[in-house]
Design a protein that fits this description.
The protein has 297 residues and is of the alpha/beta class. It folds into two domains: 174 residues, 3-Layer(aba) Sandwich (D-Maltodextrin-Binding Protein, domain 2), CATH 3.40.190; 102 residues, D-Maltodextrin-Binding Protein, domain 2. It has 13 helices and 13 strands. Helix 3 links the parallel strand 1 and strand 2. The N terminus is likely disordered.
Length: 297
Amino acid sequence: MTSLVKRTIACLFMLSLPAAALAQPQQKAIHIGLIPEMNVFKQMERFAPLAQYLTQEIGIQVEFNILSRYGNIIDSFSSEKMDGAFFGSFTGAMAIEKLGVVPLARPVNLDGRSTYHAHIYTRKDSGIKSVSDMKGKRFAFVEKATTAGYVFPLAYLKEQGVSDIDEFFSEYFFAGSHDASLNAVLNEQADVGASKNTVFDWVRKSNPRIDKEIVVLAESTKVPSNGLCVRKTLDPSIQGKIKKALLSLDQSPEGRSVLTKFRAVKFIETGVEDYRPVFNFAAKANINLQQYVYRND
């Protein structure tokens, strides 16, 4: 699926590139990775216009690659020689610690926020009202390398006295995306789940069953929305062009059109300190970012 997605995205971008860009094969392409936070085809629709816009603005072909798993983005950043990635808050924190990446910018969502938080939820008819009620139940996490879908829930459970999730739950599994975790609980494949609120709300708008059948039990504090970070060795002038293009998107009709398709109102500058809440969650969950095994078995 990953290779197919990459070929599909590349074809979409090549068809949309201006003739001037295609006429310069010697130009270096900018390879940017994406975590699979939602259905891959929905994500392709969201990022394709942004890739075309950035290509036009910086004069170098920009290609997005949607990876098959969250944790892959750390390994792939080096092995596939990526220039940047839209890291989730946790993968961003890991990449800052492990790879020394440089955060540039992140989107402000349609609700005016540039942050998100985690939801832990269950079905209204489950009888679960607290952590103690979760004992012996099934939990649907997202991935080991997500803040909302694993690190916060793990930290929250530890604070509530759950020292070993293997013993506490009858079963837990990793759904692979935030919407998949929510659907697992909705369709009674799990009793409890966790997702980021932005994807939760996105699913909620199109599925009235969420309001009717799901109740949120706990929420995390805010963490930065998925932000673009680049490798520290990327030419500073290219870093500057990418950052400028993102931060000025809302200042032109063409840029605002891209933002509409991206479901954001603008991009804002982002730095290492914005990831401080994620570092704190990791500490509470007893996760050492330098040594953490973030791939799912």
